[in-house]
């Protein structure tokens, strides 16, 4: 099993694949050319031999007819020419008369015998037949003996010629081609090894640089050898930059959590030590200190609850409990819960609905988001101020607008208000019990609904939060 995995891993190597590709590109064409050239040589050589034999045979047929050789086969001139042609081409010649009888056989084996074959019959019908038998290695040709005046066919000349010399030449060419091809293959293998190594070298450099980045020796990947490696370097550096930002944010978050949780504990310890360090503590002072300790405990509890809400929201991004909710009734219920807090601070709380709206939302998460926005509008407001909440919708989205007459947000703080534990005015936030997590929770909840949130604020005049959420939830 491990050998199979090693084998698969070996062939997954880009260098190995390039090496194999170069081998195929280099060796296959030469093999195809070798086979094609040898076959072409054989066809051409056989064709040339056939043309030569046919031209000689035609001359000989004219002389055979002119000298009436079919009736008198004792002509020394014709016999000498037949033997000469037979010896030149290492073949066999037979002269056949009109009765299909062999009157001359240069091999002196079948003289006087009768021959009936398809080729002979076709030549008696006036056709010139040429056939190449590659398996047995010979060319067979039949030429009609035609009387010039009457075009009468008197007989047939059958010529059978060996192609051994052609095959010997072909074998010699093939052995030479093999030697050349083996030599070429060795050169191609060396070139393939060199080129495949050269082409994958930038990826090796890239791997080394990534290791150096991991060990902290480098901060950026820079391999501009190819356009592809350059693009990979750019994307890697972008990803690495984002990871560094995330890592720094995580460290900052942990530091902030530690600080925020430690501060109430420190306050409680100071108050407790003050009580323990005094004798005969008045009941009024004791009650005051215990009230302060209780407030710090409430503050610690609120921070922990907000942290739990935020962590739970991060982890359950894909766990949305989507139902069809009447948004008008949801907002009325939220304002009903917050109205006692607003009345306590003399803040006017108004809801304005332009049309009935029903949407597919997670009621708990959306309630938490809208509650945080309205509660912030109440907390960070001026005496006798107001918070207006409006609801509207179109065919695709519904819109919630939360506007207040509060202290506003400085322009340089607007881009940071969704960061965890960020506070515009830390002293004022602590006075009213803010944890710096509310807007982070709100933004997460809205984004989980595939929505968007925007803020517009003028310091000293008030703040407007615009929330847009799809009427129909689209799962990712």
TrEMBL record:
Gene Ontology BP annotations: cellular response to phosphate starvation
SUPFAM superfamilies in alphabetical order: ATPase domain of HSP90 chaperone/DNA topoisomerase II/histidine kinase, Homodimeric domain of signal transducing histidine kinase
Keywords: Kinase, Membrane, Phosphoprotein, Transferase, Transmembrane, Transmembrane helix, Two-component regulatory system
TM region positions: 177-200
Catalysed reaction equations from the record: ATP + protein L-histidine = ADP + protein N-phospho-L-histidine
PANTHER family referenced in this protein's UniProt entry, alphabetically: PHOSPHATE REGULON SENSOR PROTEIN PHOR
Region forming the signal peptide: none
Record's subcellular location: Membrane
Enzyme Commission code: 2.7.13.3
InterPro entries: BphY/WalK/GraS-like (IPR050351), HATPase_C_sf (IPR036890), HATPase_dom (IPR003594), His_kinase_dom (IPR005467), HisK_dim/P_dom (IPR003661), HisK_dim/P_sf (IPR036097), Sig_transdc_His_kin-like_C (IPR004358)
Coiled coil: none
Class of this enzyme: transferase
Histidine kinase domain segment(s): 256-473
One cellular-component annotation, GO: plasma membrane
A GO molecular function held by the record: phosphoprotein phosphatase activity
UniProt organism field: Roseburia zhanii
Protein name: histidine kinase
């Amino acid at each position: 099993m491990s050998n199979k995995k090693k084998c698969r891993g070996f062939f997954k190597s880009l260098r190995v694949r390039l090496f194999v590709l170069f081998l195929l590109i280099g060796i296959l064409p030469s093999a195809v050319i070798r086979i094609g050239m040898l076959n072409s040589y054989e066809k051409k050589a056989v064709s040339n031999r056939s043309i030569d034999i046919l031209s000689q045979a035609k001359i000989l047929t004219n002389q055979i007819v002119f000298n009436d050789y079919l009736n008198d086969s004792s002509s020394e001139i014709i016999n000498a020419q037949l033997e000469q042609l037979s010896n030149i081409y290492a073949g066999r010649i037979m002269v056949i008369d009109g009765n299909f009888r062999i009157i001359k056989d240069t091999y002196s084996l079948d003289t006087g015998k009768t021959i009936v074959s398809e080729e002979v019959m076709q030549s008696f019908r006036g056709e010139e037949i040429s056939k190449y038998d590659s398996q047995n290695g010979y060319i067979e040709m039949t030429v009609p003996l035609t009387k010039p005046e009457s075009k009468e066919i008197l007989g047939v000349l059958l010529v059978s010629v060996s192609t051994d010399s052609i095959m010997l030449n072909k074998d010699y060419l093939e052995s030479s081609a093999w030697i050349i091809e083996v030599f070429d293959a060795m050169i191609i293998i060396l070139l393939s090894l060199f080129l495949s190594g050269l082409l994958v070298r930038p990826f090796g450099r890239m791997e080394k640089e990534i290791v150096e980045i991991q060990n902290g020796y480098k901060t950026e990947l820079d391999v501009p050898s190819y356009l592809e490696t350059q693009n990979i370097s750019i994307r890697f550096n972008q990803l690495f930059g984002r990871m560094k930002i995330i890592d720094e944010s995580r460290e900052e978050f942990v530091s902030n959590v530690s600080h925020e949780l430690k501060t109430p504990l420190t306050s409680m310890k100071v108050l407790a030590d003050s009580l323990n360090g005094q004798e005969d503590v008045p009941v009024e002072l004791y009650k005051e200190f215990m009230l302060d300790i209780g407030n710090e405990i409430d503050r610690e509890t609120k921070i922990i609850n907000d942290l739990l809400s935020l962590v739970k929201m991060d982890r359950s991004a894909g766990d949305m409990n989507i139902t069809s909710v009447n948004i008008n009734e949801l907002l009325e219920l939220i304002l009903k819960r917050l109205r006692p807090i607003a009345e306590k601070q003399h803040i006017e709380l108004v809801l304005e609905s332009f049309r009935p709206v029903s949407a597919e939302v997670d009621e708990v998460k959306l309630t938490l988001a809208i509650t945080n926005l309205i509660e912030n509008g109440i907390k960070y407001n001026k005496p006798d101020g107001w918070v207006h909440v409006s609801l509207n919708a179109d065919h695709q989205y519904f819109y919630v607008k939360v506007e207040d007459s509060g202290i506003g947000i400085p322009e340089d703080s607007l881009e940071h208000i969704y960061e965890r534990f960020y506070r515009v005015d830390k002293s004022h936030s602590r006075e009213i019990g803010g944890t710096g997590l509310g807007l982070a929770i709100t933004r997460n909840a809205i984004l989980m609904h595939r929505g968007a949130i925007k803020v517009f604020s003028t310091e000293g005049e008030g703040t407007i939060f615009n929330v847009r959420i799809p009427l129909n939830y689209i799962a990712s």
